[in-house]
Hints:
2-enoyl-CoA Hydratase, Chain A, domain 1; 9 strands
Amino acid sequence: MLTRLTPAPGVCELRLDRPERLNALTQPLASALLEAVCAAQEDESVRVLFLTAAGRAFCAGKDRDEPPTPEFVAVLQQLAAAWVDGAKPVVAACQGWAVGASLELLLACDIVVAARDARFQLPEVNVGLFGTGGVFALLPRKVGLARAKGALLLGQPLTAEEAERWGLVWKLAEDAREEALAIATQLAQADPTVVGEIKRLLHKEALGTFSSVLAREAQAHGRLGH
């Protein structure tokens, strides 16, 4: 379900590898991703985390065959915290659909390259669910409050061009993985102390204490019974 690769020195590629289900997230897959991320953060040979997905879609969100549970929400929040608070940059390549929880995880990445066929959606409100992964801090910081409200309250899909125009992704590319890998390779060659400090200060100024946002999201899930 999760494949770990080393496509370039210092780059740890973590590939969602469940294409027959459009890489839909199950708790075992999310837990495996969290375990791999934590291991990479501790591995001195790894300088950049590189998130990719197999097949025609990045991720269809939470697998519909699995009911939402507090444990699943907790894993998603831990993943977001690991990426936002960790010193190592996280680069992602997105093709096809990125829906719900998977888009929330992309928001926590530092640089996202999207293919021109990419589509993005936060449809939770339409099925009576609530966002997680720090989306209530990350989304308005990236796209502005008005657009964040529209995305979360209406649940409408966005094209790749709209996502780029909004600032949801860094850039579009004909081959998202190739372009994102070039970026990851460049970052792996930079001074990791400088890169980590840039990331830390940007997040401190833009997000404040990210853990407090995650805590408030968890409280909301509790009130809603998710």
